[in-house]
Amino acid sequence: MKEFDLEEAMRLYSGRLFAYALALLCDRHEAEDAVQDAFVSAYVKRSRFKGEGELAWLYAILRNKCRDRLRRRKHLPLEQLGEAEAVAFDGEGRVALTDALRQLSAEERELVLSRAVEGLDYAAIARRMRISEAAARKRYERAKRRLAALLGDNS
Question: Of 10, 41, 52, 139, whose CB is crowded by the most CB atoms within 10 A?
């Protein structure tokens, strides 16, 4: 059984985890703090690591850290994102994507990121969010349509 190696995990996954946290939290500093908290928590709980699915395990810890931060907020900050906050996304339209994600609710962002970033199926999303698989599918489709509309893609 593979043991959790904090340094290796940080080297391999920091960028991906930061991009995920930034998309969920829409705040660069909070995303950095959430990722750091997630790595600390993973290290403390390393005895619970089963040896497989290290990235999925880290995503789950990070998602919970982000949810905690979102619960403490009254609302999302609405100030305009600058280029520095958008560096987690590659390619054209990264600022537009970041701005569009910010306009989604926390639940909508989680749904979109669970499918697009983590590649989870509807059954896994349903278990995670404690909803039915049909509800997960429907909510995801709505969130995806809303994101597409925000990005100006009306197809």
Answer: 139
For 78, residues 6+ apart whose C-beta sits below 8 A from its C-beta are 102
Q: What is the pTM of this model?
A: 0.61
Residue by residue, DSSP assigns 68-118 as HHHHH-SS---SPP-GGGGTTS-STTHHHHHHHHHHS-HHHHHHHHHHHTS
With tokens 């999925």, the residue in question is 56
Query: Over 50: is that where the pLDDT of 117 sits?
Result: yes
- Alpha-carbon span 128 to 58, nearest angstrom: 14
In three-state secondary structure terms, 26 is: coil
The H-or-E segment that residue 23 falls in is helix 6-25
CB atoms under 10 Å from CB of 129, counted, come to 15
Element counts in the chain: helices (H) and strands (E):
7, 0
> Six-digit token pair at 92?
């054209």
Count of residues in the chain = 155
pLDDT band at 93 (very low <50, low <70, confident <90, very high): low
Does residue 70 or residue 89 have the better pLDDT?
70
